[in-house]
Amino acid sequence: MPAAAIAQDQPDPCLLIDCTPDDGSEPSVEIDDPAATRENITVLGAPLDDPLGNKAYAVSEIGPRELANEASGRIENALRNVPGLQQFRRSDSRSANPTSQGVTLRGLGGNAASRALLTLDGVPQADPFGGWVSFPGYDALAIENVRVRRGGGTGSDGAGALAGTIDLSSFGVAGQSRYSGNVRYGSRDSLEANIAAEQKLGSGGLTFSAQYARGDGFIPVIEEQRGSVDRPAEYQQYGFGARFVAPLSDDTEIQANIRAYSDERERGFAFSDNRNDGADASVRLVSRGRWQWEALAYLQLREFQTSFGAVTADRNSVRQVLDQFNVPSTGLGAKFEIRPPVGDNAELRIGGDWRRTIGETNERFFFQNAAPLRGRNAGGRTDTLGGYVEASWQVTPTFLLTGGGRLDYWSIANGFRREFELAPDIAGQIRSDDSFADRDGFEGTGRIGFAYDAASLLTLRGAAYLGWRLPTLNELYRPFRVGADATAANELLEPERLRGVELGLDWEIYTLRFSGTVFYNQLDNAIANVTLDSGPGLFPGVGFVSGAGVFRQRQNLDAVDALGVEIDAAIDIGAFSLSAGYAYVDSEVAGNAGAQTAIDGLRPAQVPQHFANASLDWQPRRNDVSAGVTLRYIGSQFEDDGNTRLLDDAFTLDARANYRLSEKLMLEGWVENLFDAEVQAGISGAGVVERARPQTFWLGLNVRL
């Protein structure tokens, strides 16, 4: 499990005492703890308060209990409980290629680069080179909750928040000394261990957490298609994080974060290993005085390595075809926001931010007799600099208006791609040396919304918005291969632009909560891998493609149109808690020229129409035992842009049970995919099916001091 909760196991006081009054009125809580009455504990480390305008938008939250109850212990799997939140592949970070782990919302099309902005304590988390998310880097962190805001155009989030924003928030620092740890052992010799600690330092505190995970893994290819080359996909991952928080004055505090991680995986055959290392540092100042403000600066360092092998049709031999031996990248950024006092019924936010990404890929390819004959370097730099103004006004006690605008300047610079010979007799000879023209431009975006309390228990809300995303360095400059298929880069890609509207309602009565949203999004210039031809043949940017493969290029589609509905519901009945979610997305490609006419009207690759999940948890008052189940359904989706390779729908059931052995020790058990359903994660051009998340049992111990 993630060290996601140094405090997540603190019981609800109503689980320890009877909080229900005899007269049937709302319960009150009285805790017989003299120390609690003598000392008010102040928790430090939070950002500024949630914006007043959030009430107008579709927001989902995953709290510490939901994170702790995720059977896999993986935050990317906990995110699958958010209706409509899509990851490029159905596999998680134990078996997926790290470059395939982008996230998006609202059916805007499969893409390894994220179309939703994921942040950690305000810091953007997309890989600076490729835009994917390194999920194992969060398993060592004390994550308190996840908040998902759907829809683009939120000015404070900036470029990249095309489909919405996923905010990860670390636990606050309470200035106490406390410690926790857990260890669990599972199927296929899997082992996970976590420790977390908080140490009081003066009027502030320091938190530290660390994690280690390894496993022999499972064989990704389905059983009936395996050959002698197929073997379990081993993984090993570890990391740590530290956070220091302290007050600088009565209303201002400093928050400093550092983390580092290493992620090694194999894809289930020789020459399919990869490694992803990262280190981050950030400093945030938060002031909650009359003039509230927040300042943030951060640094991200990444280094990625991967290898690819070509497997014969009978899957009895494999040879190396690519060694991407070094992909260093750097992300730099800063942000500032101020909220001047404008009255009790209004809020004004003024801010700006800057982000730079620098990266390149270093590769060896065209192997013969196990030796690479050619090399490639490619990369560049991107910058975005923007400013925003957002205002919210509680016009009446029941009616809220909110809106804002943002202007960004972007630039793409220093782009290059160079290929050269590695064969001993001609080593160093240049085959091609391309330097691409610098480009820049401006993007204006904005968002308006309203919330109306139609009744004491019912809120109606609506919003319209514009958003955008800059192409990643990977999309611009790096060609790649998957099996026999080859995809060329495109240095002329334009930014993606989104227009969207939504209408929703939130209803809450006693312990029943319901939220529903209908939306329409149009993504112009959507970046996708477009099939241009089939092998065999020589093609620009990728070279030779065999008869078993196809030639694609990254291109801007005319548009992707997505119409859908999202539903969240939850109810608490005594010791039982039931939550459920559903999303339906009718997504369609609009392509009116060239090779894109062949995919006009088709569904975007990797976009299912149906998402559904439900969780039932049992937590009796004594708190000695608890249990729960989670059901997830994901509809069928196409692997490719031509809608010829269909991934079957999948239904899985996870379960857990906990038993408290003592005040400080708990026995925990989980099972992932109880009925071992086949979850198809990919289909190659040769029809080979890859699976994800097989049946996995876990048994563990949790200690708190």
Automatic annotation (TrEMBL):
Keywords for this protein: Cell outer membrane, Membrane, Receptor, TonB box, Transmembrane, Transmembrane beta strand, Transport
CC per GO annotation: cell outer membrane
Transmembrane annotation, as ranges: none
GO terms, molecular function: siderophore uptake transmembrane transporter activity
Membrane-related topology note: Multi-pass membrane protein
Domain TonB-dependent receptor-like beta-barrel: 229-674
TonB-dependent receptor plug domain ranges (all copies): 56-165
Family annotation (SUPFAM superfamilies): Porins
Protein's cellular compartments: Cell outer membrane
Lineage: superkingdom: Bacteria
GO biological process: siderophore transmembrane transport
Annotated family: Belongs to the TonB-dependent receptor family.
Name used for this protein in its record: TonB-dependent receptor
Organism field: Alterisphingorhabdus coralli
Lineage of source species: Bacteria, Pseudomonadati, Pseudomonadota, Alphaproteobacteria, Sphingomonadales
